[in-house]
Design brief:
255 residues; 7-stranded mixed sheet; 7 helices; 11 strands; binds zinc ion; nucleus; tRNA_Mod/Golgi_Maint; tRNA processing; DTW; tRNA-uridine aminocarboxypropyltransferase 1
Length: 255
């Protein structure tokens, strides 16, 4: 299974283009006044003065996010930060602003749900048989909430497309799931890539690698925390605990 790494993405903006957390510090968000460092995940806007990369996607993106999925932990919000004009985020299940997509057929092409339902087809096959995709809809929630989300009246008639098999870049052996569980932003990235390369038959040159920029910034933070912890443990002579690793991985956020 394919797995992207920082080194394999030619279009990824170098992480060191970001000012250090010490330089940046947390500032008050202009909209909600909460203190944030890089972007405000509640308002879904970058903080002033933070050089966030911007990308152009081959089609539009709607993220339908379960309200119980914390904004601070949601990687899907990264798409709104780097592709703000092409991305919309809705807070489900009570999203009053979420339109009814109906059958998904539209003048500019299809709206499709990225979800491996029984009737899902590959993005390549869908494009070859039905035509252009104008918009991907991606659900952002835990596996427990998937049923509620896919049964939303606005979504339930949409055609589903499934991704090829990939391995998450954020996998740690201690984690509960195997490495085929992608972060939502990884699923968005692969959907866009499959559409460009296999659907539109256009070569991909890293144009939207930066969809994963904030994801890798988060990973960098996790790794730095692990290293820091390892040092502390070495100093105190403690043995590394698996439980602690798990906790660390789920609790890290980009703020
Ligand atoms: Zn805010």
């Amino acid at each position: 299974m394919a797995r992207v790494t920082v080194g394999s993405l030619s279009g990824l903006t170098p992480m060191d283009s970001l000012p250090s957390p010490e330089e940046l510090g947390k500032k008050s968000c202009a909209k909600c006044k909460r203190n944030r460092m890089y972007f405000c995940y509640d308002c879904r806007v970058p903080m002033e003065g933070v050089p966030t990369p911007k990308v152009t996607l081959p089609c539009l993106l709607d993220v339908v996010k379960h309200i119980k999925e914390k904004n601070s932990k949601s990687t899907a919000i990264h798409a709104k930060i780097v592709a703000p004009l092409q991305t919309r985020v809705f807070d489900a299940p009570d999203a009053e602003d979420l339109e009814d997509y109906g059958s998904g057929e539209g003048e500019d092409g299809w709206t499709v749900l990225v979800f491996p339902s029984e009737n899902a087809t590959s993005i390549e096959e869908f494009t070859a048989t039905k035509g252009k995709i104008a918009r991907f809809v991606v659900i952002d929630c835990t596996w427990f909430q998937v049923g509620v989300m896919t049964r939303l009246p606005q979504l339930k008639k949409l055609p589903c497309v499934s991704l090829r098999s990939y391995s998450t870049a954020f996998w740690r052996p201690q984690h509960n799931h195997d490495d085929s569980h992608l972060a939502t932003i990884e699923a968005i990235y692969y959907a866009m890539r499959e559409y460009q390369e296999l659907g539109l038959k256009q070569s991909y040159r890293g144009e939207f690698d930066d969809l994963l920029f904030w994801f890798f910034v988060t990973m960098g933070k996790v790794d730095a925390m692990k290293e820091e912890r390892r040092k502390r443990q070495l100093e105190s002579g403690e043995k590394e605990k698996t439980e602690g690793e798990k906790k660390e991985r789920t609790e890290v956020t980009v703020e």
